[in-house]
Amino acid sequence: MIVTPSRFFWAYSLLAVSALLASCQEQGEALIDRKRRENEADIQAYITANNISATNLENGIYFFPTKTVPNAQAPATGDEVRYHYIARRLDGVIVDSTDIAGNVPASVILAENATTGITLGKYAAILKLKEGEEGSVLVPAFADGGRVGTLLLPQYSPVRYDMRIVSVRTENEQIRDYIRTNNLTVTTTTSDSVRVIKTLVQPTDSAAITTGKNVTINYTGYRLDGSTFDSNNTGSFRVTIGTTNSIQGLQSGLLQMRAGEKGTIIFPSKVGYGATGTGRGAQRILPYTPLRFDIQVVKVQ
């Protein structure tokens, strides 16, 4: 015989499960609050024991400088910052670091709330340091990027980051360095900071690209680290100059070209994808990212 549970049974079971979940949530919240208090006490004890003069930043992060360079370049929103760090537990055990011996720093583009690829503690330290400077932050676990925890650094442990700023570069400095490193010869620099490097030039009787023209191109789009985010090599991508069907930087560069020409167009994010970026996955372009397009002008109509 099959017995069908009564509605009362299901209602009672649902209430019981709901009560259990509520209880777990309260316990979880209490645990987080307790760990925050313990982290704060541990950090304060560390500061006292090591006679550190530290500034209390937001989110319970404490900062203290260890090397200053007063006239150095300070980072600002939109800048690329390259940095080295050593992460330690408060008992001194090193749990992580950049490749300092090989001089392979980490990097981040400062984009305020849209910044990615860095924990809040490291980000807070970068905002307090200039190029060439060094400093440390003491970071409670809850401000360290939702860490899961490892054998070396348990989930609720505070951490110390020793930071050194290797370089601070604006977008224009990134573009300048990229052009120099890759031995590119700029043909034209436009008023909106677009650089055009022609690699195949056509005679002046070739069709010029002007506002209102429909331009068919082949292209490959790169970030300045060399990674590709988009391409079209079928001769079917059409740009209408003066409309919004393509970004300003690309159009500004095309206005310097003619039918049949090839070239490279490099431009800052102000005429690209700006402070928001675009795309997902391999096509993701982060905020404040300068871009390179390699172009072949197939047709001008």
Task: Fill in the keyword field for this structure.
301 residues, alpha+beta, Chitinase A, domain 3, 2 domains, seven-stranded antiparallel sheet, 4 helices, 13 strands, disordered N terminus
Summary of the model, kept short:
The protein has helices at residues 7-49, 120-128, 171-181, 248-254; strands at 55-56, 62-67, 80-88, 94-97, 106-109, 134-139, 159-169, 188-189, 195-200, 214-223, 228-240, 262-267, 291-300. With 301 residues, the chain is of the alpha+beta class. The chain folds into two domains: 25-169, Chitinase A, domain 3; 172-300, Chitinase A, domain 3, CATH 3.10.50.40.
Tell me what the structure shows:
The chain has helices at residues 7-49, 120-128, 171-181, 248-254, and strands spanning 55-56, 62-67, 80-88, 94-97, 106-109, 134-139, 159-169, 188-189, 195-200, 214-223, 228-240, 262-267, 291-300. The protein has 301 residues and is an alpha+beta fold. The protein has two domains: 25-169, Chitinase A, domain 3 (Roll); 172-300, Chitinase A, domain 3. Strands 1, 2, 3, 4, 5, 6 and 7 form a seven-stranded antiparallel sheet that branches. Strands 8-9-12-13-10-11 form a six-stranded antiparallel sheet, with helices on one face.
